[in-house]
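Quick log. Single chain, no ligands specified.
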Amino acid sequence: MAGPLDPESARDLDSFLEMLAAERNAAANTREAYARDLGDFAAFLRRRGGRLASADSAAIRGYLAHLAKAGMATRTAARRLSALRQFYRFLAAEGRRGDDPAAIIDSPRQGRPLPKLLSEDEVARLIAAAGTGEDGQRLSALVELLYGAGLRVSELVGLPLAAVLRDDRVLVVRGKGGKERMIPIGQPARAAIAAWLAARPAFLARDAEGQRLPSPWLFPSRGASGHLTRQSFGQLLKQLAALAGIAPDRLSPHVLRHAFASHLLDHGADLRSVQTMLGHADIATTQIYTHVAGERLRRLVGEHHPLAKGRPRRRRSGPDDGA
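-> predicted structure:
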């Protein structure tokens, strides 16, 4: 938090964060992000003699103008505004304010960036470059799962061991907000998981006597979290990209999630199914991937639509035609 809040603002912010945890099951990282965004707005107000609890629409507009002048990305400013909207909507619903000052504020105009893409051949090269041995088997399983199930990186590294022991054909994932979803996994991913399970004991921590300690995580680590971290996996992926002849700055865990969705749509999967597997609450989020299928759809229209080669002629009625 950037500086102390006045008692009323601190109480309102604490209540809002408690609501996120209790009613929306928001993760600790999500609550911390809201607290940072609202704290930054509170610091802006404090420099001008204002308070978070009583800010008006003019103050919010002034804050957005301040962010734009400072060169903040439009997407980040829109996220800040979203936090303000939810906070003041909560205060109004709880009767702590008689108005919602953020309700009439327009979002900063932003173009939605298209996701970075990898071709199917590049993904195959990544998997081939993982190599053999215990490290290679772990990396293969990580990449196969990320690409084969479209997981978020936090979901991947935090997978419990039980998730792959229940049914090797389906992966049960607990995603944002604690919501569970089921994702079918193909044979290559199943084979990579089986190979990794055989090598996994080598990555378990040991006690003072040298005995391996059990771990509930699919990808255990000797670090504080008990499992492989997002940062460590990101570094491994950059190294793998270089081995596969792919520029490291083109690859991140999220790029493989993009590839999962884009390649499914390119091969004819329907948008709703991809939305379910990705765990998107809003199908509009999934629609960003439809650009990948654009060329295939244009080709289908060109080959099969009756108007593609000119309007079909209407058959003239004859004496044998029924009325």
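The mean pLDDT is 84.
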